[in-house]
Amino acid sequence: MKKINRWRKIRLLWELPLISAFNRWPLCEKFNIYSGGKDQQSKSFDEALKKLVRHSSAFEEADQQGWLPVHEAAAQLNKNILEITLRASRDITWEQTTLKGETPLLVAVRRCFVENVHFLLLNGCNPNVKNEEGDSPLVIAIKHDSYNIASLLLRSGARVNLRCVHERTALHEAARLGRKDLVQLLLESGADPDPRSGYGLTPLALAAQMGHTEIMELLLQRGETLLCRAKDCASILFEAAGGGNPDSVSLLLEYGADANVPKHSGHLPIHRAAYRGHYLALKYLVPVTDFAAIKESGISPVHSAAAGAHPQCLELLLQSGFDANFMLAQRVRKGYDDHRKSALYFAVSNGDICSTQLLLNAGALANQDPINCLQIALRMGNYELMNLLLRHGANVNYFCRVNTTHFPSALQYALKDEVMLRMLLNYGYDVHRCFDCPRASGSHSQYVTDGWTSTVIKDTMFCEVITLSWLKHVSGKVVRVMLDYVDHIKICCKLEAVLKEQELWPDINSILTNPRSLKHLCRLKIRACMGRLRLRCPVFMTFLPLPNCLKDYILYKEYDLYGQENFTGIYNLNCA
């Protein structure tokens, strides 16, 4: 009975299309469809396959992926299947490709079936054919780290210097992947140690990119040159700096690599290491890089470390004597829409508190860029950055170049945020310019009543901005806060009309119509005498012969919402 069942299964396999029969074979083995041991299963399948050989036309039928039976046979671990199928197939099918451009040999190499590869090579299959992606069997063997197959291919006529994808050779691929044994095999088989890829990269450059130091040393000992450069003029040391392996950088320097050779953009290896955050590699490059080369490049590695947000590298550079105020050259600035200049601007743009702190402590100036660093922090709403910049001299009274207002531009970002508004005012924002309206009691132009005009607005008054339809609901809160930082002022009729509609008008009117307290006036006078720069300096305040409570009062500590960590943004107003 078992014998009859076995024959039924074999006959079923025989009656299936041939490609389906191969596809069923692994499943039969997995689910133990055949009775008996594994050897009996293999023998039964071989016998069924021999019966199918009579139908020679079946061996030229491809499936939807373009696979012929010979492709499927090459993908089977059982070499007998391949032998029988290859004998039954016409020679023309041996080099026929699938839809992915794979011959039976490429299929066997990709599956790492050494016996199948050996058998196909013995039967004359081409070892230099390429698949759809442009990879040769030798390159595929290297990608799969198959030393035996690579050796077999080379002994069977595979061209060791055959150009594949991006004009790379097998040596390029082995060096890139860090296959030292395969690199040695290729070199012993006559591989050119210094070929250029389509991008001008050599195997040494690719090994340097990936940090494969042993392979780099092997190639250098075989005579590969350090002088070759990629199409973008990047040196091998530049590639190693990007890879970040300090041993690779050290090795190249020992062999005489020049750290002052720029790529076409002007960047040096030190810039690359700093931008990528490769601290140990950077330590090797700092002492061998000339300042003249850095100056010629137009960009400092301090910029690179700040742009890459790597404070550890930034600290190393600053400790090594690099200038925190080195400005980008004009030709480099043009590459940025905002024409930035300083390393501090990069750090602030990244929201990098640590790098910003390092630069400011090293003496970086906060007002050097066309767009003020404080404006970037305000736009981001980053209180910590704002506080850092203001404490280190950022100009709270800066003016934007576009749509210039009569009052300093920083206020525009703080109209709806009391924490931000108080911070600006505490650091000396010029509040008086907000109430400096030339038409105090006269009529106002109506062209801005309903919104901005299509033309560039210059010298726009505060009353014209705060009374806009989308801002007038906060006018009472903003003006009430501002009154804490001025003595007696007058407001124009336009602003007064809007304020009368606000809930806080009674408080505002009371302050405007009554004398201010002597204590408040004294605070304003002392602050005016001290000046904005001294007010922000904690050290200077320690020299004032005043008790701490008065110092705190002068600095508006009672309104320092950031220092109190009161970030609710809710206006909490009391009469002064």
Strand-helix topology:
Layout: H1 2-15, H2 18-31, H3 38-52, H4 69-74, H5 79-88, H6 104-110, H7 114-122, H8 137-143, H9 147-155, H10 170-177, H11 180-188, H12 203-210, H13 213-221, H14 236-243, H15 246-254, H16 269-276, H17 279-285, H18 291-297, H19 301-307, H20 311-319, H21 330-333, H22 343-349, H23 353-361, H24 373-380, H25 383-391, H26 418-426, H27 462-466, H28 475-482, H29 493-499, H30 505-513, H31 518-530, H32 532-535, H33 538-542, H34 548-554
Fold and architecture overview:
The structure is a single chain. The protein is mostly helical and 576 residues long. Among the domains are: 1-133 and 144-159, Serine Threonine Protein Phosphatase 5, Tetratricopeptide repeat; 160-297, Serine Threonine Protein Phosphatase 5, Tetratricopeptide repeat, CATH 1.25.40. Helix content is 49%, strand content 0%. Helix 10 packs parallel to helix 12, helix 20 (311-319) runs parallel beside helix 23 and helix 22 packs antiparallel against helix 23. The protein is elongated. ANK repeats lie at residues 100-132, 133-165, 166-198, 199-231, 232-264, 297-329, 369-401.
